[in-house]
Design goal:
By secondary structure, the protein is mainly β. It has 5 domains: 35 residues, no CATH class; 40 residues; 227 residues, no CATH class; 43 residues; 118 residues, no CATH class. It is 5% helix and 27% strand. It contains 3 helices and 35 strands. The strands form 10 sheets. The protein has a 5-stranded antiparallel sheet with strand order 8-19-10-11-18, with no helix packed on it. A 5-stranded antiparallel sheet has the order 9-12-15-16-17, with no helix packed on it. A hairpin with a 5-residue loop joins strand 20 and strand 21.
Amino acid sequence: MLYRYLSAPLAALLLLAAPCLAQAQTTPTGGVGIGTTGAPDNSAVLEIKSTSKGLLPPRMTQAQRDAIASPATGLTLYNTDTNKLNTWDGTNWTEALSAGSYSYPANSSMTFTYTGAVQTYTVPAGVTQVRLDASGAQGGLARGVSTPGGQGARAQALLTVVPGQVLYVYVGGAGGTSGPSTDGAGYNGGGGGNYFATYNVGGGGGGGASDVRISASGTAYTDRLLTAAGGGGSGPNGGAGGAGGAPTGSAGGGSGAGAGATQSSGNALGVGGKGGDNGAGGGGGYWGGAGGASNGGGGGGGSSWVTPTGSNASTFTAGVQSGNGSVTISLPGVPAPVLSGVNFVNVPGDNLGNHTATQNLNLGTNQLVGNGGSAGLTISSTGGVGIGTGADNSAALDVSSTSKGFLPPRLSQAQRDALGTGSLAAPATGLTIYNTTTNKLNTWNGTSWDAALSATEQPYQNATQTYTTPGQYSYTVPAGVTSLQVDAAGAGGGTYSNDVGGAGARVQATLAVTPGQVLTLYVGGAGSYNRYGGSTAAGGYNGGGGAVVGGAGGGSHRRAHERRATGRPPAGGRRRRRRRLHG
């Protein structure tokens, strides 16, 4: 029955919401899309899509932000005091930085020393956190003894601030020795020592605290951001002063010693106790240490403190400061972004992102290296490039390595031959590539491609061979040779009396051959002669005719050959060999 009564109103509500529901999409895995035309991205639990509107996160002041109890890691909001997007990282509030936020002023760290008066520090523009490092002052020495006063404490913390905010700095002064005209109290809260005139003895004054405040008056202790406690003075009977606390102060030494201060009790807020009968003064601090009572006890050390509002990374160290105190205010470093073109978008000035450079990148004497290596690329002042070495003055490119080679562009012969066709640029004279079809280095000589040859294909030492003694010879065509230049001369005829025989003819030609082919060579002999009916004169070797009286004929040169091997001309052209044949 209940369903019956509710169904009509529920239907009406769904109808009213229909236009809105049309803009929202959900997935079976729980993803929600707003403004999406389809399902939201699988990696997103919420996807918002728009080309005219943005995402408006919660907006609040810094005080409202700091009042959030136990913020979840990743919680994000817009800080209306700093006009920055803030995100809680589990420990601190972080904020989005604009391009100008990367630069801090030159005085990014400032140290204040004791002056006996208040000093000021103005938070720079764009700064929302400062690091405070303060040390309280040491307690004073009792009259007539060498037992030292307690040393001051050190307090450190990261504090939230507002750009332009003025901080008031009080640096503690060291305690002195009490006497007829002074109680030796250290500046900024040190308790005075007690002087006993009858015996001219007195306790040392307590050391003053060092603190940073947000108010000029200094009267409201809640205005303090951080306090480093001072040490207690020493007593005349040898009682040591108590050390400044970390955060609780140490008690003084000796009979009637003063107690150290805690976070909730002590002599008084901000002020160490005065010594009793010749007792020492207590150290200043958040709570001041108690003064030494009668019998010359040492004063107690004060307690240290850091405000719980807007503070992070607080640390305390007891009894480390001698003499006067100090305060250092520094700006926390901003982590450098990962170098990529994305990080440099809209950052003013020149950079290495995706843009047109406005100035030269000068490496000087350095190298351009990668992945932390020590060897890389150098550029000389004359423009020479060195890889693995400085460029030699005679070289435009100098590559040096004892473990790696130079790998030129690798092209097939078809790809090589396509250079200069279509949209491909014509090869420049001297262009060199590795031909993957012939496995040879090729160089364009301006007209054709030359190929680097192996040892067996290099020019031969005996490029010309000459045969002069009549007879038969064999010649084998070398590998890779497809033509020979042959220069042959026939032998002269024999002489008779004063008549000279005819000279042999000369023939020159370029003959096609095959690598490995065996050629047979015949070198003709000169004709002999005979006189007055002697025996017949023999004809010259290789066909010269004999003579009964007179000179015999000279022999010819012949070339016989057999094809014994086959081969192809090497890439890049034909090789020629010259053979001279003489009779």
